[in-house]
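Section 5: illustrative case.
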């Protein structure tokens, strides 16, 4: 069955190619057939513009493309956007986003991301809240480079702007259902229309279930079932001719299984009672939970790795035309509860088991005043306030210790910023841009640090760090022709400091990081808009880069800690191409390349420090080494694209599509931590009667059953390496219908 479906999937492009000649005449008469590269309207700069008129490096993915590209969570964007990586740290629900090499790798939930995630202009400052299902999406915009003047603090890497579908004036309804390998299914639906005069509404929901693809090496029990459900309601009220109110509320719950780990080599458990051989089967894993861990997690002794998360978001967006300007107010509240158990050693023994718990509350208010005339000066001024609290921590069993290690904390954040973003049209060709933002922030962490039960918790200590920084952007846009735009900019981006809340006896803060970004690019439509070619080059001057490092406590020894690198740099570029060589045939390609290194960095050498001190401490001798000139740890290149062909044949509309992505190896100074390069291929084929309101199709993901890994775990030492593998080939059917 697998071989038959793989052969059929690979044949999709062959079918499409052989049909070009015979279907050319028919395709010219089809309304759904692409004849030129279409104009895309975006809100990347907080106002509607054609994407080709925006002088920033920008990728846009339409909502209708998400299923074709296999994008079911925000993490999957890495397979469709150049120079972007996302991974859920150690298979858990805490993702880390990186754009152009800017981004951290940590598994605690309390620190800000370097990439801002926004849903309908509302920020998700803690990325653990972004793992719900993507549904009823109009488009996703990925902006590369610092975006502080428009999107606020902590966007040094860039921003992901998710825009959901708005209510419609006419009645509409529809659903999309798919079923696939391992009994996984997804059903999404919506209803939209006028509720009352001047009041429009939209209700959308989705559920994802099944899909368990891993199994326990000892018992055969399955792992990997999805269990996600979400619902969103939107209201648009025209309160008057000049005032519009948009209300939105989303509730989501995720009770899915966690990710299982594989053993990369022979694994001897603590005490030497059992030695597991290296896992050779791709889908094999293992897990177990101790009585103490089960008690704090509130589960039984038969519990599998799991997530039990739920979140609720509500927002109000009010826009008023004052005549001389537009006033926009965005008020948002978000609450999220995390309960998650992971088994990072991949065995039934309690070598490295972790239970995370968090309660997150975020309130935000933004006010913007912007010009609304057609004069040469386009201006915007605004203010933003945020109040955030995140309480939680994690329990762990380590190396078979029956006693739980607990690290708990409570964090509060208060931030206020004022900003302006302006452009001035000097003439019909030249546009100048200037933006500035001042941000002040206070972060407080209350924690007693890490302690081992049954010892009583140590006294709570308060730690503080603040931020008073300016970010900004200067740029120009120059129309080379009516269909070609050159742009250049220099921007300053700032990311907050924070606290290490794992493996620490203290929570001394790390400093904010600052990026000075230089960028130049071109956007062009060629050959009567049959070919769109965009490209950009960048150079980043990085100060106080936040990285995973070490510190030593005199009595407890080596501890992981987020530290700052004084100076480093990154440079690279992207090229994105969309080509319509024949009516109905669309070819998209993208490539991203980046490289970077530390320019000034003296770091603790753990091996030499351990060797210089007694085995059981105290650790009074600290040895550092110079890591200047060392390559930064990220993939240098990724390449991707898609080929799609739409044509009509004998009263039917057909579509064949394949998309692919290559990712270079994830570099590490430790050879055992390098994750190999890989290719991923997906394909789709769909058909519908011409003019019908339904469509049916086949899909395949990871067509060539490529083995690739997300993260590797070295918590139990280099002699016990484990990894979180990603899923292999899956395939299924899809039915879409609109009313």
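Designed sequence:
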């Amino acid at each position: 069955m697998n071989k038959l479906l793989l052969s059929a999937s690979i044949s999709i492009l062959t079918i499409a190619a052989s049909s070009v000649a015979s279907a050319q005449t028919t395709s010219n008469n089809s309304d759904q057939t692409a004849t030129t590269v279409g104009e895309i309207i975006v809100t990347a700069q907080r106002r509607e513009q054609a994407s080709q008129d925006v002088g920033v490096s920008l990728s846009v993915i339409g909502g209708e493309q998400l299923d074709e590209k296999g994008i079911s969570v925000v993490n999957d964007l890495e397979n469709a956007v150049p120079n972007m990586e996302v991974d859920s740290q150690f298979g858990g629900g805490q993702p880390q986003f990186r754009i152009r090499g800017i981004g951290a790798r940590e598994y605690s939930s309390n620190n800000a991301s370097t990439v801002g995630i926004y849903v309908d202009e509302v920020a998700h400052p803690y990325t653990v809240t972004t793992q719900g299902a993507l549904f009823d999406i109009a488009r996703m915009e990925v902006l590369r480079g610092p975006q502080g003047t428009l999107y606020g603090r902590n966007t040094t890497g860039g921003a992901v702007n998710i825009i959901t579908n708005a209510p419609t004036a006419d009645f509409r309804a529809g659903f999309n259902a798919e079923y696939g390998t391992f009994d996984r299914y997804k059903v999404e639906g919506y209803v939209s229309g006028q509720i009352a005069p001047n009041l429009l509404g939209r209700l959308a929901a989705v559920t994802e279930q099944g899909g368990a693809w891993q199994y326990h090496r000892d018992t055969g029990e399955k792992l990997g079932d999805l269990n996600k459900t979400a619902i969103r309601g939107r209201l648009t009220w025209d309160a008057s001719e000049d005032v519009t109110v948009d209300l939105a509320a989303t509730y989501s719950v995720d009770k899915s299984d966690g990710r299982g780990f594989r053993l990369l080599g022979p694994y001897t458990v603590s005490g030497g009672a059992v030695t597991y051989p290296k896992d050779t089967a791709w889908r094999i894993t293992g897990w177990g939970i101790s009585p103490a861990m089960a008690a704090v997690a509130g589960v039984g002794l038969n519990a599998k790795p799991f997530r039990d998360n739920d979140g609720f978001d509500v927002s109000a967006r009010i826009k008023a035309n004052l005549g001389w300007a537009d006033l926009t107010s965005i008020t948002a509240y978000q609450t999220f509860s995390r309960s998650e158990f992971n088994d990072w050693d991949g065995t039934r023994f309690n070598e490295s088991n972790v239970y995370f718990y968090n309660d997150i509350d975020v309130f935000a208010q933004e006010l913007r005043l912007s010009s609304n005339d057609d004069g040469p000066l386009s201006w915007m001024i605004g203010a933003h306030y945020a109040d955030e609290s995140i309480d939680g921590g994690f329990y762990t069993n380590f190396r078979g210790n029956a006693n739980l290690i607990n690290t708990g904390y409570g964090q509060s954040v208060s931030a206020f910023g004022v900003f302006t973003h302006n452009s001035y049209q000097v003439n019909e060709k030249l546009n100048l841009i200037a933006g500035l933002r001042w941000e002040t922030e206070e972060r407080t962490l209350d924690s007693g640090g890490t302690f081992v039960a049954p010892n009583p918790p140590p006294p709570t200590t308060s730690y503080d760090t603040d931020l008073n920084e300016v970010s900004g952007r200067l740029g120009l846009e120059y129309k080379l022709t009516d269909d070609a735009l050159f742009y250049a900019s220099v921007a300053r981006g700032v990311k907050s400091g924070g606290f290490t809340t794992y493996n620490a006896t203290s929570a001394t803060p790390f400093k904010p990081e600052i990026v000075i970004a230089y960028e130049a690019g071109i956007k062009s439509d060629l050959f009567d808009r049959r070919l769109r070619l965009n490209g950009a080059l960048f150079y980043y001057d990085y100060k106080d880069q936040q990285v995973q490092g070490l510190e030593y406590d005199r009595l407890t020894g080596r501890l992981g800690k987020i530290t700052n690198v004084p100076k480093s740099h990154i440079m690279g570029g992207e090229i994105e191409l969309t080509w319509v060589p024949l009516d109905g045939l669309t070819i998209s390609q993208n490539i991203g390349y980046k490289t970077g290194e530390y320019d000034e960095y003296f770091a603790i050498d753990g091996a030499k420090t351990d060797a210089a001190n007694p085995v059981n401490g105290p650790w009074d001798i600290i040895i550092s080494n110079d890591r200047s000139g060392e390559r930064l740890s990220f993939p240098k290149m990724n390449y991707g694209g898609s080929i799609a062909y739409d044509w009509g044949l004998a009263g039917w509309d057909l579509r064949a599509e394949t998309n692919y992505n290559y990712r270079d190896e994830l570099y590490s100074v430790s050879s055992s931590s390098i994750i190999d390069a890989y290719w991923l291929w997906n394909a789709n084929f769909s058909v519908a009667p011409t003019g019908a309101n339904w469509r049916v199709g086949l899909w395949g993901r990871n067509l060539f059953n490529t083995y690739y890994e997300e993260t590797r775990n070295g918590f139990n030492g280099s002699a016990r390496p484990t990894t979180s593998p990603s899923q292999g080939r899956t395939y299924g059917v899809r039915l879409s219908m609109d009313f």
